[in-house]
Amino acid sequence: MSGGVAAAEGPLLGAGQGVTGVPGGPSTGPTAGRPTFRGLRSRRGGATLLAGLVLFALVLAASLAAPLLTPYEPSRNDLRARMHGPVWDGAHQGGWDHPLGTDALGRDLFSRILYGIRISLALAGAGLLLSLSLGVTVGLVSGLFGGWFDLALMRLVDLQLAFPYVVLAMAIVTATRTSIPVLVLLLGLAGWVYFARVVRGSVLQEMQKDYVKAAQVFGASRWRIGLRYVFPNVLPSVAVIATLQLPALIIFEATLSFLGLGIQPPTPSLGGMMLDGVQYIASAWWVITLPGAAVLLTTLGLNLVSDGLRQLLDPRLQTV
Amino acid sequence: MRRFFLRRLAQNLLMLAFIVLAVFVIMRLTAGDPARIKAPIFASEDVLDRYRAEFGTDTPLPAQLVSFLSGIVRGDFGESFRYQEPVFSLIAQRLPQTAMLALSALLLAVGVALLLGVAGARRPDGWLDRLGQAIAAFGQSAPTFWIGLMLVLVFSLGLGWFPAVGFNGPQSLVLPAIAIALAVLPADLRVIRTAMIDGLAQEYIRTARAFGIPEWRITYVYALRNAALPLVTVVGIDLGYLLGGTIVAEVVFNYPGIGQLAIDAVNARDYPLVQAITIVTAAIFVFVNLGIDLLYMVLDPRIRIEA
Question: What family is reported (chain A) (predicted)?
Answer without folding.
Answer: Belongs to the binding-protein-dependent transport system permease family.
